[in-house]
Amino acid sequence: MTGAASTTAVSGAQPEYTSDEMMSIAAARALENGKRCFVGIGLPSTAANVARRTHAPDLVLIYESGTLGSKPDVLPSSIGDGVLAETADAVIGVPEVFNYWLQPGRIDVGFLGAAQLDRFGNINTTVIGDDYTDPKVRLPGAGGAPEIAASCREVFVVVRQSARSFVDKVDFVTSVGHGSGKGDRERLGLPGAGPTLVITDLGVLRPDPETAELVLTQLHPGVEVEDVRAATGWDLQISPDLTRTEAPTAAELSTLRTLKEASR
Amino acid sequence: MTGAASTTAVSGAQPEYTSDEMMSIAAARALENGKRCFVGIGLPSTAANVARRTHAPDLVLIYESGTLGSKPDVLPSSIGDGVLAETADAVIGVPEVFNYWLQPGRIDVGFLGAAQLDRFGNINTTVIGDDYTDPKVRLPGAGGAPEIAASCREVFVVVRQSARSFVDKVDFVTSVGHGSGKGDRERLGLPGAGPTLVITDLGVLRPDPETAELVLTQLHPGVEVEDVRAATGWDLQISPDLTRTEAPTAAELSTLRTLKEASR
Amino acid sequence: MADIVSLADGVGELVRDGDVVALEGFTHLIPHAAGQEIIRQGRKDLTLVRMTPDIVYDQLIGAGCARKLIFSWGGNPGVGSLHRFRDAVQHAWPVPLEIEEHSHAGMANRYVAGASGLPFAVLRGYRGTDLPEHTATIKWITCPFTGEELAAVPAINPDVSIIHAQRADRAGNVQMWGLVGVQKEAVLAAERSLVTVEEVVDELEPVAGQVVLPHWAVTAVAEVPGGAHPSYAQGYSERDNAYYKYWDSIGRDRDTFRTWVRDEVLAGRSATETTGDKEGVR
Amino acid sequence: MADIVSLADGVGELVRDGDVVALEGFTHLIPHAAGQEIIRQGRKDLTLVRMTPDIVYDQLIGAGCARKLIFSWGGNPGVGSLHRFRDAVQHAWPVPLEIEEHSHAGMANRYVAGASGLPFAVLRGYRGTDLPEHTATIKWITCPFTGEELAAVPAINPDVSIIHAQRADRAGNVQMWGLVGVQKEAVLAAERSLVTVEEVVDELEPVAGQVVLPHWAVTAVAEVPGGAHPSYAQGYSERDNAYYKYWDSIGRDRDTFRTWVRDEVLAGRSATETTGDKEGVR
């Protein structure tokens, strides 16, 4: 979405890095060691693999292609790369992934991307436009996301932020975040806590404990509140406890870049 | 049940054999080459393994312990002997046996035993006596039989015959044969044809095409109609086309005995 | 990360009076040593769950550990009856035994539902049999697409499931192969799980037909070589067919059984040490 | 006993106009060569079923073989959009494409129900999403034991399922390993099946993680080395990531796509011979 932003170099006393690199590293930091993490391809997979090589060596990576505990030495290009199966603790069929491992709530963190995300963390990856049968843009669809969003103990969303993608209400609810607000997940009978963290190239948003509306709680270095407001399609609330993300360390950056380089 | 009968030697011009051997060999002969056969332990397993070593080398043996296409070189002592897994084309979990292989009707012949069998081929392996909660004899129970009887394309029952075990109506319907008569399987929605053959130590019974009641269609050598009537708890009808079983050949007996010997 | 514990500690910590307990293993890999440890520790009022309550449950039932049995086939495979099971059902000895009876297909699907976090499973089963009349956990459900009526059975979710496997590594990843039965489902359906293994190794070499349970899906692992005896562990031991026949002579009589419990279980000797050979059965 | 046939004969005999056809393979073992053979033989009005309609279905859709797509995720994995799929949905080019859209969990369970001979499957899914509003094959069902409401989806039973596997023996027993996706379920759910394999061998040596389909569960086997390209066959080939990027340049434009079909498919050259390398993409 924000191709330009992704290559914006941020400079200072710290090593230079792009806003995409900041996003990946911020996402990696959010993953606690030892957690079981359901990983989609792209940004989530990058972040999870950085985490496993920095502070979270015992992070358990689960890919919907059927691998439990993959330990890839390069970034996979797809969720079904051979390296994921070859390095896994267990390789299983796809029905088993969803029925025996995801559905009963065995996964701590579901890591999702989004084409559209709304103020309550609902995710659209299906169609852009009001008419499902005649969409403006046909997106890939649901994949594993609806049940990942429902059943993981919590959900982290990693997505580049723009006013086009951060909307007041998604055109299509592919995966439920906090529905129409606080208490909606319970009403729907969704077992997991839903999106507890949205990590973008500008900062971090979290659901307000009272309303479940996403509020800005953290700014990446060099980003100002107004930048984030401008990249948000609703009247973004700012947490009174707004913090500033620590810039990537040289070690984090080198880990990320080595991984990316190895996957070319 | 008929321990005495099982060791009765039958002699003549043919080699000597017991009535149990005749039963096993008659059962083996009923299995066509290439068929997929769901095999219980004991008499069915013996018969199936004799068949595979005589006229039906491509008989596919399926054991509920999770083996497809077992080719044991000795008679297994249980449905879970290691030799069944080691010689199988595929080893699978028990839920898969029932859900993916039995339930959809992929198995040609289900081979069952019985503690009680009634005139419509219904099978009891649960309790003897009228009161389920206070049984005269507690039997092992259903195992895989109810769904084998329901889903295999046809069912062969192998059982020693006596007036105590061949009853007018079973005390408990563990597995449905022809229910209360012709058309009952269709009414119940049971996909397979049910018991098409009952092989005993005295002869062979088949369901009457009009009524589905089991009638005597074949006598083993040395057995007379009155012997079978005396060993049947209902007014047994005799097929107008009653035939006589060919005595076991020397080759059949030697195959059976070699298998039995090897399993000691 | 599964804890590596002793058998006594594993059973002591994970199996509690009144629990719903599943010991699984379909002919192969039956956790006999764990069953005898439950007897040794004097557990009571257990609801025992198992597709094929063979010798392992005949022992637990005869020792008075169980108040209820959920099962689909109770016999001594290849030999005959389970006399302790029969005695409990027919004569309430040593304590009354409630039973809940299913078919294999029903039990397997109950474990599948339990492992899947679903409240029930659907199957083509039981139709026309007398089981639904006596088993409250068999109901009927209508397909919302075709209108067809099918059987429904509720999930089994044991408090604790116990299985035996060939190997685990030091992190507690469990590896088994050969006939794997419903063991994975039993462990995943349970609140807690104990896996006895032939050996704990540094590295799990891949084996054809293996099922691997990751360490984070298992509560505890205990190294119990021969812990399946008289059942077997493919690659480690053979089924002791003679012991199954020998068991018939033990289980048949209350006093003989009581003596067996006293001498062979309570005295701390495990089934691994007690072979048919020693008893002069072969 | 599965027949050993040529790819052309297998597709010719088993895939018919108007059929419900599933080509499965989850990133790994995607039967691309068989898909292109369907284009070559000019099949029409197919209902295509696949969890992840990636390049293989972009090609079939762009070539006008399909009238309907049943799926859960339609993209070029790791690259972006499927332009032929988008063009069909957004502009009915070259023919209108009806869609029936599920989640992965729903599709996987539809295959499981199909393989199990059940009319439907139950899952915790779809709740709160907009999918049930647009997909008639998502309904709700009440647990007869707990009263809980869950999602129900109907079985998928394709007329023919096509998969790619590593090996078969001469009797037609099929062996695959690595990521095995929903291929077993797709084959077992189908009326007929075609398996393309890397090689036909005398004896299937056991491999860790293998899934074996017995010959009597498969209709036909065709030896098509490289038949998964640009997907891969573990132990035989690597995923051609460059080709997935290259495909974006082909699929993006109708004329470029038409030229590709003419030169690379109709001319009889299979995907195996057409690598990204040759096109100068790397």
UniProtKB/TrEMBL annotation, chains A, B:
<dbReference type="InterPro" id="IPR004165">
    <property type="entry name" value="CoA_trans_fam_I"/>
</dbReference>
<dbReference type="InterPro" id="IPR037171">
    <property type="entry name" value="NagB/RpiA_transferase-like"/>
</dbReference>
<protein>
    <submittedName>
        <fullName>Glutaconate CoA-transferase subunit B</fullName>
        <ecNumber>2.8.3.12</ecNumber>
    </submittedName>
</protein>
<dbReference type="GO" id="GO:0018730">
    <property type="term" value="F:glutaconate CoA-transferase activity"/>
</dbReference>
<dbReference type="Pfam" id="PF01144">
    <property type="entry name" value="CoA_trans"/>
</dbReference>
<keyword id="KW-0808">Transferase</keyword>
<comment type="similarity">
    <text>Belongs to the 3-oxoacid CoA-transferase subunit B family.</text>
</comment>
From TrEMBL, chains C, D:
<comment type="similarity">
    <text>Belongs to the 3-oxoacid CoA-transferase subunit B family.</text>
</comment>
<dbReference type="InterPro" id="IPR004165">
    <property type="entry name" value="CoA_trans_fam_I"/>
</dbReference>
<dbReference type="GO" id="GO:0016740">
    <property type="term" value="F:transferase activity"/>
</dbReference>
<keyword id="KW-0808">Transferase</keyword>
<dbReference type="Pfam" id="PF01144">
    <property type="entry name" value="CoA_trans"/>
</dbReference>
<protein>
    <submittedName>
        <fullName>CoA transferase subunit A</fullName>
    </submittedName>
</protein>
<dbReference type="InterPro" id="IPR037171">
    <property type="entry name" value="NagB/RpiA_transferase-like"/>
</dbReference>
